[in-house]
Structure formats: C-alpha cells, structure tokens
Amino acid sequence: MSSRDLVLIALFAAIVVVLGLIPPVTIGFLPVPITAQSMGVMLAGCILGAKRGALTFLLVILMVALGLPVLSGGRGGLAILAGPTAGYIFGWVAGAFVTGLIAERLVRDSQGGARQILGFALAALVGGVGVVYLFGTLWLAYAKGIALPAALLGQLPFIPGDMIKVAIAALAARSVMVGYPLLPQRG
C-alpha cells in the first residue's frame, strides 16, 4: 500500500466524519436515524475502489471504538458497536467493498458520461444500499428481538433518501473520474 493510498483512506475517513456533522433525522418509531454518513460508503467505494473504500470504513470503526465522537450526532464508543445500529456500521465496510468492486468492473475512462453515471449508480445501489441494509437489518432484528419481516418493513422510510444519496454519489464519482480518476480499473 502506497502513501498515496493511506492519504486517500484518511481523507475519505475525514469526509465520512464531516458527513456525520450533518444532523441525523430521527423517525420516532425507528431506532435507526437517517444520516448522511451512509452516503460515504457509496462515495468511497465509487471513487476509491473496493480495497481503499473498505479500509476507509475500518479506520472509521477504529475511531468509533476508541470513543471518538465521529458518528452522526457526535456518537462514539464501544457501546455503539454493540447497539442496534452496529450492523449498519459494520455493513459500511462490506458495502464500500462491494460498491468499489462493482464500480471497478463496470466503469471505464473510455465510456460516455451517462454510462459511467449508471455504472456508479448501480454500484452505489447494490453495495451502498443493498449490502448495508442486509447487515443492518439482520443485526437490528437480532438486537431488538423483532421478526425479520418487521425489520425489513422498517427499512421502507429510508429508501427515498437513499435513492437521493445514490444519485449524488454517482454524479460526484463521475465528476471526480473526469477531473482526477482514482478508481482502480479491473477487467
């Protein structure tokens, strides 16, 4: 791993922390707030790729474990990593990896802008939403002792916001690719 990779990982971890400064939106009947930090999964995967994107979130989790208030709402500490939202937090690592893996395979410099945006959007949707929801929903159901179908139903209020995050991440990743491509290319 090069020093450039380490700088990019640290930079994106800082971006995730800054996204956490945006106040979370809580829905009274759900234990999981709507945060901007989940968009960091999509951005890191699409812009940095699988390996560096996942390492970004391992660094964020390390900061949380050390008690730093880096999560949305100024949260941090080991208790957060065992609470009902822990599945989403750990899902960020896998989500960034899958997002990056898909982006590395679908998006090329030689493609037109619309095709690149669609590739990034698909990567963000599958990894940044699907994988994160999978981890989060399974842990939430277990931690809260609720049935899996009920936990899945509880995801519905988050979908419109996550679709907006997918669009923003795809457009941002395309813009970065045009100006300063960082995404590793895999065949």
Automatic annotation (TrEMBL):
Location of the protein in the cell: Cell membrane
UniProt xrefs under InterPro entries: BioY
Domain of life, per lineage: Bacteria
One Pfam family from the record: BioY
Protein keywords: Cell membrane, Membrane, Transmembrane, Transmembrane helix, Transport
Chief site of localization: membrane
Transmembrane annotation, as ranges: 57-82, 88-107, 119-143, 163-183
Membrane topology according to the record: Multi-pass membrane protein
Keyword Cell membrane among UniProt keywords: yes
Similarity annotation: Belongs to the BioY family.
Protein name per UniProt: Biotin transporter
Lineage per the UniProt record: Bacteria, Pseudomonadati, Pseudomonadota, Alphaproteobacteria, Hyphomicrobiales
